[in-house]
């Protein structure tokens, strides 16, 4: 296996691991906090609303936006590491 092939395999392995991790956070915030764990979270209040309801209606949107910026930064770091970044 050539060095180039090894680098591309490692690059895609890191990219897919990052995507997997972002999707896990996305799932836990939207489905987990907004639906599955909502009854347990509703004992805490944020802005006068139960936390489970807040996650389902607003909190997950804020987290999704943060995930976009986090993903962009981390994928940029991976691109630089493997010298496939854009200038």
TrEMBL record:
Record-annotated membrane-spanning stretches: 21-41, 53-72
Pfam families xrefs: DUF4212
Keywords, sorted A to Z: Membrane, Transmembrane, Transmembrane helix
InterPro entries found in the cross-reference section: Na_symporter_ssu
Sodium symporter small subunit domain sequence ranges: 10-85
Source species, domain of life: Bacteria
Name of the protein: Putative solute:sodium symporter small subunit
Organism: Malonomonas rubra DSM 5091
